[in-house]
Structures are given as C-alpha cells and as structure tokens.
Amino acid sequence: MTSPQDTHRWFSRCASIGAFMVPGLALWLPSGYSYGAVLLLLATLASAPLWWRRPAPRAAWWLTAAFSCMAALWMLDVGATWGWGSMDRPVKYLLALPCIFFLMTFEPRAAWLWMGVAVGAVGSGLVALYQTFVMELPRANGFTNAIQYGNLSVLLAVMSGLLLVVQWKRWCLWQRLLLASAIGLGAAGSVLSQSRGGWLALVLLLPVCAWLLVRTTGQRRVYWGLCALALAAAALSQVPAVEQRVDEARQEVQVYKDHGDGRSSVGQRLAHWRLAWQMGWDRPFTGWGRAGYTDEKARRVAAGLAHPVVLEFGHAHNEILDLFAKRGLPGVLLLMAFYGIPLAMFWPTARRIRDGAGKMDKESLSLCLVGVMVPLSYIGFGLTQVFLAHNSGNMFYLFMCPLVLAALHERRTRMGCPRPL
C-alpha cells in the first residue's frame, strides 16, 4: 500500500513536471502550452480528496477571484450566435481554478520552472530559425500566429535574462551557457517573427527589470547591463528584416495621418483604436457586447463613419480598447484587476525576498521578478494586440501565474520563512 508521504511526493513531482512543461513546450509543439496544463488538470482531479478541504493561503484566493471575474466576463460572450466555440475561453478559466489549489498543496520546485523557461526560449529560437532559413517562411510563427509567437518568445528570453543575472553565482557553466543561449535564441524567435508589438513591450519591461534589480539588490551595475541591452537592441534594429519593419511602421503611420488609409498593418490598428474609443464612450457603462460590437461596426462602415478594414477583425487590436468598446468601463476595470492582482502578489517586497535573518534570497527574488514580468508583459503586448483573444495568451497566463506563486511558497516554506501572503 502506498504511504501518504509517497502519494504526496508523487503529486509534487507531477506539479514540478507541469512547471517545466508549461513554459518548456509552449512554443516547441502545436498547442505546446496545453500539455503541461492537461497534466496539471489530471493530477488536480486525481488528488482532489487531498487538497479539497485543505486551507489555502490568501494569495490563492486572490488569484482565484481574478480568474473567476474574467471567466464571468467571458461568459457574457456565450450565445447561440457564436456556437459552442464561445464556451472555449470561459471553460479554460474555470478549469484553471482547481489547479491553483492543487499547486498550493503540492508545490513545485522552482528549479523545474527555471529549466522550462530556458528550454522554452531555446526551442522558440530553434523553431524560428528552421522556419525562416529551411522552410523559407517570410515570418516565423511556430504553431500559432507570428504575433503571439514572437511575443511569448521575447518574454521567455527576458525571463531567462533575469535568471542569469540574479542567480549568476549559483549556476554552473552549462547552466550559464543554457541561459545565455535562451536569451539569444528567444530574442531571435522574436526578431524572426517580425512582431513589432513585442519590441514595443521591451520598452516597458527592461527599465522596470533594471529598476527592480537595483532597488532589491543595490547593485547599480545593473544599469550598465541595461545600457548593454540598449546597445544590443540598437544593433538588432540594423538587421535588415527589423529595419524594414520599423521603416514600414513609420511610413504606415504617416500614410494614415495624411490620407486616413487603414489598409496597412499600422493603419488598420489606428482605425480600430479610433473606432473602439468612440464606441466605448457611446456606451461607457455597458459596452456594445460582442455581437453588438460587430453589428455596430458594420453599421458605421456602411454609413461612412469608419474605414472598411475594421470589418476584417473581431477585435480592436488593443486589449483595453477592445474591452472598453465591448464591455465598457466595468470590463476595463476587471482587466486591470486581472493584471493588477498578480502584479501586487509578486511585487518583490522584503517579506517575499528575504529570509528570517534579513538576508536576500536570490531564488525568491527570481520568482518575484518572473511573476511581475508575466502581467507586465501582457500589458505591453496588449497595446497592439488583443493577446487574450488567443488560446496561447490565455493558457500561458492562467498557468504561469499559479505555478510561480506555488513555487514561491514552496521556497519560503523550505527556508522556514513566513509565506509571503
């Protein structure tokens, strides 16, 4: 007969393997982000009698509240007009909820998560190189669209960079080489996808990373590292494909400004943003709803009040404006809570990153910084793309947040420190 200790150890191992698989397979395989999620869900169901009545920390309940509110928001889109497919997004959110409590009971080890982040970034770059130079695709897209692919690739690269910098002394040579390769190949995946939104998000991510590192470690040489990254970014901007995409963006902005032409990539975004802003203020407290948004767009195009290009997409190419038009200010506030709650949970306070003697714990700091990067990057990505309209965007967020939280709690417990929340 299996002892309770063996059972607990087995489910903990499942949690750790899931922590590796979610980021590690995200961009390697078709729906790669789902394999780890399915493993975690199956383990959650199998272990339900063990975690069901077990008290959970406040952080788990806050995360549950954030996910539940967004699930309720997506449920408003469910209807006969969209068929069973309209249930896809809210069901994923609801299925992620029990996984939070499973992970807080059978907490994964951070080492598995770190390996997954590094392997995921390496994989994204290798797939991008293969698709670009062997398959000769114009843009690397992995097994999703190029924008989602490039954005997640650069996020994994940034996470790998944080791990390399914060825990440099801990890593042996092969681990340093792996993380350095992850940075380079993750960045390559983004560059070869030609996804400009991910590059824009770096303007938000990198200064915050540098400021938090200096604030928590007191090592001002981090700013020199940021300067080096800025120089590297400037060098990348001279890569022909990148330089061409940047020049195209400038030209498309000017053409839209001068002639109102929304047929270009940037032009159609500007047309969507303008229309969504107008529609949002027409119904600021209720929004138009998903079906109403589509119908009203068609009416305004027919009346000559909007560019016909807006009919080609079901969203506004901006996360906040899209929800503003469809669900009004309440929808925007729920989105802010969806990002803000994890951001607050992972913010690197002294209670979360120092041990009982007041000494800095680099593992806890790494977990907090990676946790901060998830919602912060989604805010950046959402400026030019409705990231949560895609399966990859939802699944990565829904499982990375509880995985990082559970790993942080496992680390604090193992050190004998009070849990952060």
Automatic annotation (TrEMBL):
<keyword id="KW-0812">Transmembrane</keyword>
<dbReference type="GO" id="GO:0016874">
    <property type="term" value="F:ligase activity"/>
</dbReference>
<feature type="transmembrane region" description="Helical">
    <location>
        <begin position="146"/>
        <end position="166"/>
    </location>
</feature>
<feature type="transmembrane region" description="Helical">
    <location>
        <begin position="221"/>
        <end position="241"/>
    </location>
</feature>
<feature type="transmembrane region" description="Helical">
    <location>
        <begin position="367"/>
        <end position="388"/>
    </location>
</feature>
<keyword id="KW-1133">Transmembrane helix</keyword>
<feature type="transmembrane region" description="Helical">
    <location>
        <begin position="173"/>
        <end position="192"/>
    </location>
</feature>
<dbReference type="Pfam" id="PF04932">
    <property type="entry name" value="Wzy_C"/>
</dbReference>
<keyword id="KW-0436">Ligase</keyword>
<feature type="domain" description="O-antigen ligase-related">
    <location>
        <begin position="185"/>
        <end position="335"/>
    </location>
</feature>
<dbReference type="InterPro" id="IPR051533">
    <property type="entry name" value="WaaL-like"/>
</dbReference>
<feature type="transmembrane region" description="Helical">
    <location>
        <begin position="328"/>
        <end position="347"/>
    </location>
</feature>
<protein>
    <submittedName>
        <fullName>O-antigen ligase family protein</fullName>
    </submittedName>
</protein>
<feature type="transmembrane region" description="Helical">
    <location>
        <begin position="113"/>
        <end position="134"/>
    </location>
</feature>
<dbReference type="InterPro" id="IPR007016">
    <property type="entry name" value="O-antigen_ligase-rel_domated"/>
</dbReference>
<feature type="transmembrane region" description="Helical">
    <location>
        <begin position="198"/>
        <end position="214"/>
    </location>
</feature>
<feature type="transmembrane region" description="Helical">
    <location>
        <begin position="59"/>
        <end position="84"/>
    </location>
</feature>
<keyword id="KW-0472">Membrane</keyword>
